[in-house]
Design goal:
81 residues, mainly alpha, globular
Length: 81
């Protein structure tokens, strides 16, 4: 859960344990002001890599369906170019 005073959630609004564990995705996404969709796509790709490109395991780790994972993998934001 993040508590923010405005409409924008900043890294400083997130719990420290979250920012440490996911710094590899959070910091670049925050620097580019990525959308939640772009952030989700970057995170899904990171987890997929860490799962040895095993999509079934990635879905289990993320708690999402295969269809949702495919949607994240198809997404191409400005970061993927």
């Amino acid at each position: 859960m993040a508590l923010a005073l405005g409409y924008v959630v900043r890294l400083s609004d997130l719990p420290p344990e979250l920012t440490r564990e996911h710094a590899e995705v959070l910091h670049p996404s925050a620097a580019r002001a990525d959308s939640m969709r772009a952030w989700g796509s970057r995170y899904a790709r990171l987890v997929l890599e860490r799962c040895g490109h095993n999509k079934r395991r990635t879905c289990e780790v993320l708690g999402i369906s295969y269809h949702t994972l495919q949607s994240y993998l198809r997404y191409r934001g400005t970061w993927a170019q």
